[in-house]
Each structure stands twice: as C-alpha cells, then as structure tokens.
C-alpha cells in the first residue's frame, strides 16, 4: 500500500507541464505592467508630495466596495439557486425560501403554473424586448437626465433561461361583484438575464436581475362567450423589491449611492406602469368597450396628516461631539410619494404635513413613512437613514379615523405621530357642500373634496406642425397642480391613446381639466381643450361617457374623444361593511398600543406613555382626549375573564383579543347596539411568583410584512423596599438569540413610580420560518443605581414558539430574578 502511494506521488511529480498551464507571454507582460503601474503610482504620490490620504482613501473605498459586492453577490446567488430549484428541493433545503402557500392556509400551490411559465418563457423574450425598448428606455433616460446622466440606451436584451416562479396564488371569494375574479400572485424572478446599455458613452450591463412582489390580477368583466373574460388588469399592490448587478465599464458605479440612482429610476418607471394606482390593462374580447377596462376606479382617498416625530437618532456631528439631525419624511403609498421639508437641527421635529393618496385597493396596500437626515449632496443616497414605519390601509378603513404613534423600525429610537382618515367616494350631490366645508377647516393645506377620472380615447384630424410631415403627438392632462403625460404616438394625425388618469379636485365648481396636444418634434401646440368640471355636476351619476369634443387652437375638424367621471369624498366613518378574511385580518394588522380596559388610561391608539411623569408629547387632539377622559371615568362593569391573583408566569388571554385588537376609535359606544365584548382587566393585585411585580404585554405577528410587534403596556406592584428610594423604572427588550444593539429596544423612563404605564410599541423584522426559534427578553430596571448604574428589578423570557400568532395575544407575565448576562 505504501509503495503504491509513493508511486502515485512520484507519478504526479513527474508529469510534464502542459501548454495550458503555461502562463504565456501575454500574461507575464500583463503582470509586469501591473506591478510597474503600482510602483509608479506610489512614486508619483511621493514625487508630488501629496497627502497619504490619496493612498488610504482609495484603498478604504475599494475594501468597502468589495465587502458590499460580496454580500450582494451572496444574496443574488442564493435567490437564483432558489429560482432554479424545484419546489420540493426548496422545501428540503432552506426554511427561509419556503413558498407562501406553506405559511398561508388560503394560498394555493402553483407548481402547475410554474411549469406553464417555464414552457412559454422563450416566447416572452420578444415581448420583453419591445417593452424595454419602447416604454422603459425613454422613461429611464429622462429620469437619469435629472442626475446629469445622459445618453442612456439599451443595446442587448436577453432574459435568459430562468423563468419567474410563483410562490402561491390566492383567489378572493368574498365581497366581490359577480362580474369579476380577483387573485393575488406571489411573483419572484431571479434570472440569468443579459442586458447591456450605454450611459454617458460608457458601456455597461445588468445581470442577476431580481424582482419580488405581490402581483394582483383582476379578471373583469365576465362574459358569456369565449374567452369568458373580457379583460385583465395586472398591477403590483406595493412597489416590488428590485435588485441587480452592474457589469462592464459601468461596474465602477456598482457601489452604494451610485447604483441607487439607477435602481431608483428603474423602480420609478415600473411604478408608473403597474404599481397602484397605475394598472396594466389587457383586453381579451372586442365586445368589451376599452373604457370599461381602462377607466380608473379608485375605491377611496386616504388623507394623511404627519404631525411630528419624537426622540429621533442624532446623525450629525458637531464640534462638541454628537450633534442633532435635520430630519425630513418621505410618505409612500404604492406609486404615490410625498416629501416634507427638512427641519434643521431638531430631533423632535413638527411638520404638520398633509397629503392625500388615491386608493384603488384597500385590501393589501400599505402606507410607508421613511425618515431621513438631510445632508447636502447629489440626492437621498447621501442622507442618513432615521427609520421607517408602515401601516396597513385596511386598518384605517375599519376605524374610519386613526390617531396613532408609530415606533420607527430599523432605528435605535424614534416615534412618528400620524393622523389618518378614510374617505369613501359618492355620487350624491348632497355630500359636496359638506366635503368642501371640511377642506376649508384645515389651514395651510390644500385638501380635496372630489376625484375626477379622465379617460382619453383618441384624437382625430390634428394639424401638421410642419408642411409635408405628420406630427408626433402626445398629451398633457392637468388638473390643479398635477400633470400627467401620455406616450408619444409617432407620425400620425389621428393618434389612439386609450389611457385613463385620476385627479384630486379641490372644488369641482371652479376647477377645470386642461388638455394640451403637443408635437414632440417641434414642441409646438397642436390643440387644447379646457373642460369645466362643474359641467359634470349636471350629468346623470356625474359621468360623461365617450364623447368627441372640438379642440381649441387647432384645425377646424380636430377633435378629441374622452370620458369623465366625478366622485365626491364622503365623510370619514367606520366601515361597518368592510370585512376581511379572518386569518388575514387578524394576522396582518396590529393596532398600536390598544386600550386594554375601560379603566386603563390611554392617550391615543399608540401615543406616548400616559403616566404623568413619563414626559411624553402633549396631546394634540382635544376630541380624542375628551373621549379618553370619558373612558377613564367609566366603571369596569364587565368582569375579567381571568383571575388576576393567580401565580402563573403568564396568563394567555385567548378569548379577549377582540377588545385588545380594537383601536380606541373602534371601541363600542353607549349609542351603538350592545355587543358581547370580553375584556382583560388592566389591574392586578398580585406581585407575581417572585414578588417582583407583573408586566402586561401584547404580542402579534404580521405574516404579510413578517414583523413581530410587542406592546409594553404597564408594570404593576413593583416592590418598594425603601420608601425614600422610589424606583425610576424602564423596560429593555432584546430579540434572542443574538443580543446585539440592532435587536435592542427600550422604553422611556418613568420617574418615581412603582406602577408605571408605557403603552409603547416595538417591532422586529423576523422571517416566519425563524419565528418559533426566537425569544424576547424583557428586563425591567431602574435608573436609580449606585454610581449611575441600572439595577435590574425583574426579567421575563418570552418563548415565541408557545403562542399561536394568528391572533393578538395580551398576557400578564410575572417578573422573575435576572438569569441572563447584562449588557
């Protein structure tokens, strides 16, 4: 055996070097000049007597870039592997990549659909090339021009062999009209595409493109002839997650900040095409009028009032150390986005900013608010991130009005105060005067009283801008301060557009719809139409169907065919008829800081601590405060469903979530019909098993956003060992395993109190597959310690695998002696 090994070793050593292993002359020359370039650069720096920062700076940037590239490449390769694998392989390989049908009982498997997509994928390449060249390319080029990046153009567009995958399909069967089918498709694409482009005369490419989002498909109207469906409306409920890798000469731009510009421009163009309220309509039957498919149909308006923020992170650096921040906010609802002004040097800014969002689907859409620290530069990529919060619009729909404090995610500290109201749309003229009066009550805000939808079918007999040359016409549609531009129709005097838009209207009695027909080649105006919206008030159901109208400042026979519809904003009330599927409604929404009992003092649905010594912001809504005062004075006539004196470490309140799950605005009043509501007592006479007190927590997990919510309500019966030394308690939370600063959360400190109240909500982003392997460590400590220390009063370890998170849980926990290492 030993001889054989020696022979094998000797044979390996004796093998001659092949020509393929020879480095070659070109390789040697390349390495020689590379070394000369490095030595020459060092010599040049010394000869010119430049600072050493000229060497250290590029090295640091190169190391940071390589590290960022490795992390991004790992994520892309992981996603691509999941896209290429079968569903069975994914289930056996990684829990994180399980399809959505595993987690959601009402989502169906779609492996059959994935096989169909894989079969037709080669035929999709032609359509995708046309879409990229005709729609995406000019829009991205125009967007990049705002950053002084000109000359963007696609060269090669190959989608590759990896088809998109569908993680699951959910078909709705409740609250639908008879002539439509609605289904949600969990779409994920991580392909091997090969797309090349030119930017600033630099050739580059895009590879490892990834898109993940919830795609909704609406089939309407249903007809009695083949194909049984008149048309499709395809759109994303919210902005999809898009990622890619830059290659070629543009690889130098593939760094955080530079690549964000290109990524942001691509996301903006996708949002303009098929993120609500924008839809991609597909006509399947000639029997269906195009206006029925393409006329916008908003369900309502979400009115957003961003009041203020508190205790934001300090990102600026001053001469004396850590300074403050210059915060501003970006509010996003689907493809709609608003940006506030920045407030200098303030971590408790007050904006009083108003905006209104058109909502086309109240089921599934999310409002997101991001906070940034403003820094002068090329754009948002230079600004520091201060955190974000998100809110399901369905929660506002059910409440009608919602006044809430939201704790910022991905931030060490900070809260945002939001007031939201939901307004349905009506065709009753009696609602108009009330809607206009309501908008006039709010000063320094241009609020709307109605919504006008405009559908433009076509134009005919447009004049030629130049002799012997047909124009390239496009339209601009303006209502108030908002303007929409249609696509350009090349070389025609009778363009067909078939496109619709929705606009918010301040006062329908005086506002107008202004449409201009422009020639792209010459920039000249080919015609104009000014239509007074007040004319719709005289129409039946406030709608005017397709009707040709003469264009002003145009040819004698130039006409435009359009349809208009007006709807009036109706006063915000609780939506009694709005129902969601029980599993989705209970799993996807968490009312911030719910009122757990009539006797429990609460300032708002998620306001600051209501204890007088907690130093929160002053209340901002007198109406809500008065209702809270009435709530405080009410007697708790309904007996508690659990005993407060039990010594269990935690008392699950399985049948009490109805009351805990309600925001303050949803609590039944005396005027309403009596309902059976079970409530958990917010008081306890027990000091717990260890005699250290008890803490009241609410737990909920949002399966849609994959976020764990924990609300710290109050602590009862903290032992007072020394009457002269009353504790200053606060609560500190960690998400285990992995005690880190990113997983740490902390409440405010309540001075001199043995029964502090907080009502603070905290959030962690956790994949559903990891939820049952995590724990939440809750520690109660006091600031009154020796030499400024924080002695621990008690501690609770909440094992998340012990709870069914399909509904909210509100639990009393006994505080136990500290058993885990301190910070």
From TrEMBL:
Question: Which Gene3D superfamilies did the record assign?
Answer: C2 domain
One GO-annotated biological process of the protein: endoplasmic reticulum-plasma membrane tethering
Q: Which UniProt keywords apply?
A: Calcium, Cell membrane, Endoplasmic reticulum, Lipid transport, Lipid-binding, Membrane, Metal-binding, Repeat, Transmembrane, Transmembrane helix, Transport
Q: What is its main location?
A: membrane
* Every SMP-LTD domain range: 106-285
Where is the stretch described as Disordered?
577-649
Q: Membrane topology for this entry?
A: Peripheral membrane protein; Multi-pass membrane protein
- Residues forming the C2 domain are 283-406, 432-553, 691-813
Name the residues that span the membrane: 36-57
Q: Which GO terms describe its cellular component?
A: endoplasmic reticulum membrane; plasma membrane
Give the location in the cell.
Cell membrane; Endoplasmic reticulum membrane
**Residue spans of biased composition, Low complexity class:** 584-614
Q: Does the keyword Chloroplast apply?
A: no
Q: Could you tell me the superkingdom of the organism this chain comes from?
A: Eukaryota
The GO terms this record gives for MF are: calcium ion binding; calcium-dependent phospholipid binding; phosphatidylcholine binding; phosphatidylethanolamine binding; phosphatidylinositol binding
Similarity annotation: Belongs to the extended synaptotagmin family.
This chain's protein is named Extended synaptotagmin-1 isoform X1
Q: Which gene encodes it?
A: LOC112051433
